[in-house]
Amino acid sequence: MRSLLLRLYGAFTTAVQPLVRRKLRRRAQAEPGYGVAVEERFGRYDDATIGEGQCWVHAVSLGETRAAAILIAELRRQYPGIPILLTHGTATGREEGAKLLEPGDTQVWQPWDMPGAVQRFLDRFQPRIGVLMETEVWPEMAAACAERRIPLVLANARLNEKSLAAAERLGWLARPAYSALAAVWAQTEADAHRLVSLGAKVAGIYGNLKFDASPDARQLAAAVTLRERLPKPMVVLASSRDGEERMLLDVLRRFGATAPVPPEQGAIRSIAKRVHDVQWMIVPRHPQRFDEVAALIEAEGFVVARRSAAGEPSDAEIWLGDSLGEMALYYGLADVALLGGSFEPLGGQNLIEPAACGCPVVMGPSTFNFAEAAQLSLAAGASLRVENMEQAVTAALKLVENPERRAAMAEAALAFSSSNRGAAERTAAAVLAIAQAADPVATEAAPLEDARAEPTLE
């Protein structure tokens, strides 16, 4: 029987449904994807949306969808033909997820976490198992799956201190939700201990799925070709967040990037000359900000060339990477990457991807979303940490001017990436084992003993 507090939560999420609809309408004005199939958000589907007994994978946004792609590929390798039900919460996640679909798969929005929507979702699809990616645990969905004996698991799980503190403030909701999960596979030991403190059944510490991603070989090959035509080395501010672009532009302007280049003074080059000798690139994390960032660059007195318009780097002072799905190209072009999300208190973005491309990274002080990966990267010599954007620009300039150190960091990055692989194989085996145990007749998975890992917490 459900607790009174969970019933009150369900009443609240039902009552605010009109506000959710209004928010979706506003988001759709900037991102039309939010206006697609809105009724799916509330558990209402057209007749063409079918699927039953699938392996349900929920990847809320773009980053989680890319991690889910790695897991889904491994699930298909271990269990060919496995039908996938894929859900998302953001337009970018859904767009990226559409690329993963094969015949027999289904893609819909994640249902809003109110009783009616969740019940209609489970009635329609009756998933054999639910796999939540990284952080997405919702109280109503967790309770409903437990009641129906649908195993719900959390894969590639992470929980930083800030999120733990927020969950503890809402412990009356968070603890029952985490306790209802059938299994959790954490990225790191620190994540595991935080998850256990909320009542989660941590069954293993498998590492980060994103280490198992292989960069797009065609993009890396295209980057090699483009680099031959670049007159300057390139530094990219990758996956930048709001506020970070202005930080970079302010530093470049203070260093004299918009002023006439002073003449050489003997063997000592001015900072302005050093800045002018680099092609700077900004790649915003969120596509809805592409136009905003382009306008900001021009307002700050720089000339901008957009990837979507120019096609390849030009003589512009700032190149804007305003395309989706081309990060391997950008990292392949870059001599150094500045890690977006780490110069504002946002926890950093994925630094595993540049490592897999052999790109040295300069990160800011905020990397709590990838704390262990950041520490391992620093220890391996694949990255540097600085305190602010000015130090980051200075460090990048020094690396550009030191090809031997840059090459050593690139080699360390590739070694760091390859040495941390294996999470996908372990996670897929564990998912299939739980699905088989839940429905041994319907799920005839291949033997899993060799691929399964059973690390424990001390």
UniProtKB/TrEMBL annotation:
Organismal lineage: Bacteria, Pseudomonadati, Pseudomonadota, Betaproteobacteria, Burkholderiales
Top-level EC class as recorded in UniProt: transferase
Reactions accelerated catalytically: lipid IVA (E. coli) + CMP-3-deoxy-beta-D-manno-octulosonate = alpha-Kdo-(2->6)-lipid IVA (E. coli) + CMP + H(+)
Predominant localisation class: other
Function: Involved in lipopolysaccharide (LPS) biosynthesis. Catalyzes the transfer of 3-deoxy-D-manno-octulosonate (Kdo) residue(s) from CMP-Kdo to lipid IV(A), the tetraacyldisaccharide-1,4'-bisphosphate precursor of lipid A.
Keywords from the UniProt entry: Cell inner membrane, Cell membrane, Lipopolysaccharide biosynthesis, Membrane, Transferase
Provenance organism: Variovorax beijingensis
UniProt keyword annotation of Cell membrane present: yes
EC number of the protein: 2.4.99.12
Name of this chain's protein: 3-deoxy-D-manno-octulosonic acid transferase
